[in-house]
Design goal:
Keywords: Membrane, Transmembrane, Transmembrane helix. The chain has about 300 residues and is an alpha/beta fold. The protein has helices at about 5, 25-40, 55-65, 85-95, 105-120, 135-145, 165-170, 175-180, 195-205, 220-230, 230-250, 255-265, 275-305; strands spanning about 45-50, 70-75, 125-130, 155-165, 185-190. It binds adenosine-5'-triphosphate (ATP) and magnesium ion. Adenosine-5'-triphosphate binds near residues 53, 55, 57 and 236.
Length: about 300
């Protein structure tokens, strides 16, 4: 694609939450600080919420990488599970063997014994759950019961919930009031400010191997902020498209018009006034055609070389 054109080692705006691209923005650093402090206190539930695309999964992965060795971690990225499935998932994450042909009561006992075993080894156990807004109501109750397990001085397990704002809505319901009371620390992620957005874009380009700070002009950064509302995933989507457009034109600088075109071509961004989807599609297609031609040319060079 445009890797060669810009001299990049990898795609700078991939949507995968890859921790090697992590930038310690203020909101993410504060969240990480809250998480690490809360884990030290050993209390029940910790919650991090944020709009779609604000970096919760990335933060979750960062926490998994950085959590001190004194903690044993169980990670459940897809928690749309029944209470039974949640217990099995936790047991298997904790390395408990012999899970076949046992009933729920035996399973709960095995979990409790394993948690006590970790406790005796001086280890705290943390269950980290991403996409927590998808947890069914009854499964929340099963989670609350896990955190009832405790020694005289501390809980046997702590639960970290990462979720979209719908999680807060669920937790505010009367039905979950007991669990809500056990949330001792929470943090809400913010979108990027304009200054942070600039730093973010340049940081991702630099990690991917490109170091010219002049690639995006000021107007293009303002437009990026306006259309993305500071949501990192939307910034990534638009930057990727803008890079393709600029590559298609054979240029090396991104201007406001490229961002406007990219925004117009992105469904989750409010319409920007003019219907230019066809132009954008044609330009993106052109960029793809160039990329494919280069690949074909490359292949024939390889063939010639082989012969
Ligand atoms: N601090 C950051 N540094 C680098 N990249 C970031 C940062 N925050 C977010 N991103 C990037 O933004 C994109 C969206 O992040 P992520 O997938 O973690 O969002 P999310 O909040 O989990 O979204 P969803 O609610 O849809 O699950 C990813 O490509 C991620 O790498
Ligand atoms: Mg996510």
């Amino acid at each position: 694609m445009y890797l060669y054109h810009f001299g990049l080692r990898e795609l700078p705006f991939s949507l995968t939450p890859n921790t090697s691209f992590y930038l310690p923005l203020q909101s993410h650093s504060e969240a990480m600080q809250v998480l690490l402090t809360a884990l030290k206190t050993g209390e029940g539930f910790i919650k991090v919420t944020g709009e779609v695309g604000t970096g919760k999964t990335l933060l979750c992965r960062k926490l998994l990488n950085e959590i001190p060795d004194a903690f044993e971690v169980a990670y459940i990225p897809n928690p749309a599970l029944s209470p039974e499935e949640m217990r099995y998932a936790l047991a298997s994450e904790l390395g408990i063997k012999g899970l076949t042909r046992i009933n729920q009561q035996q399973l709960s006992q095995k979990i409790q014994l394993k948690l006590l075993e970790f406790n005796q080894q001086g280890k705290g156990v943390v269950l980290i759950i991403d996409e927590a807004q998808t947890i069914p109501w009854e499964t929340f109750e099963a989670l609350r019961l896990f955190t009832n397990l405790e020694t005289e001085s501390r809980k046997l397990i702590q639960v970290v919930l990462f979720g979209q704002p719908e999680l807060d809505k669920m937790l505010s319901s009367h039905r979950l009031r007991q669990l809500r009371q056990r949330i001792t620390f929470s943090y809400q992620l913010r979108g990027l400010s304009k200054e942070e957005l600039k730093e973010y874009v340049l940081h991702r380009m630099s990690v991917a191997g490109y170091n010219d700070p002049g690639l995006f002009d000021n107007a293009s950064l303002s437009a990026l902020h306006k259309y993305s509302k500071g949501i990192p995933r939307l910034v990534n989507v638009m930057c990727h498209k803008a890079l393709m457009l600029v590559y298609g034109e054979g240029q090396t600088a991104i201007h406001k018009k490229h961002i406007a075109l990219a925004a117009n071509d992105t469904d989750s961004i409010e319409a920007v006034g003019i219907n230019i989807k066809a132009i954008v599609a044609a330009l993106l297609l052109m960029a793809l055609t160039i990329a494919l031609t280069l690949v074909v040319v490359d292949m024939s060079t390889v063939k010639e070389w082989i012969q």
